[in-house]
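We modelled the chain as a single entity of 333 amino acids. Its sequence is:
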Amino acid sequence: MPLIVSPVGADSDLRDALEDLKLGRHSATRDLLSRTGSHWALRTSRSQLLAAGAGEAGVFKAWRDEEPDSPHACMMWARALTRAAVEAYRKSERQEVVGRAAALAQQEWRRLDHLWPECPVRWIGRLYLAQLPYHANYFDPYAQRRRVPWDQLDDPAMHYRGPWPLLDEVNWLHPGNREGHHRMREYFLHRGGGAAAAMQFSAWLVSGRLSNPDLLMLPVYSLLDLYRERHGDGRGGALQFWQTAQVRHFACRAYDEWFAPLPATEYPWLSIFDLGHLAHALVACGEDERAAWVFKAMGPYAMPQPWKDVNASLGRSRDWTDAFLRIRSSLLR
């Protein structure tokens, strides 16, 4: 079986739209999002991948200028501006550059509030912006009418402060939205306490607050965050990290309660990122039989993470594909 490194997996319509965007055209993206409509899970994932893989964001600006009343164009331009603001911050750009990008993104999300108030992506975008060095309620247009304190839950099991009202808005429009909860995990990782806080959020969420079994993958991502923080430079215990009862618990639970019940007809629509992280965790903790089924669901598709970072931390080949192909071949033969 060949190896195709692609975030879109078997979604050929999304792949065609991405190729169109790279040529500076938006018609295929407009048609794709129109067909996707209010299928919120698919709309969220497709628009996220379109924003990440478009190349030059100017194509979205041109589209929005051409069709100012299009909620699809507004959403994609807002996504592009939001990504630009967060990336500028992570690259330590000047504060005024980050602030201008954030303000422009805010403006577009407010436009989408009016163009399509039922769309949860507008709140997901604000959750993403909460990673910037401002008080998170700056991105909440309803902050003044919220509970006090704005950023604290009335739950002794979750004491970390964070942009909970923004996540509540996402869940109100699309309960259990995958990207919304990953953005919350990223908030804790980057702004609210680091990998330990992100892990606590993920474990707290799956301990009884699930409305979408996809979210059982959150702790698996958080385990990789912990690994990078503790063993990213190959520090002691790197190999043993993946062989713990904690890793086995979360990986097997995600497999048994999320992946295993799914019919094979659903496999083409699953996130390649989720499948890759699950396959890696299962292999690493010795659950080869479960991992083989996940590799079958992935087909020829894969993404570099987590294979690339784990390989590098252990001083192995920087070409992650060698290890990936060897493991996949040994489990599927």
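As a brief sanity check on the tokenised model: The beta strands are 4-5, 301-302. The longest helix spans residues 95-115.
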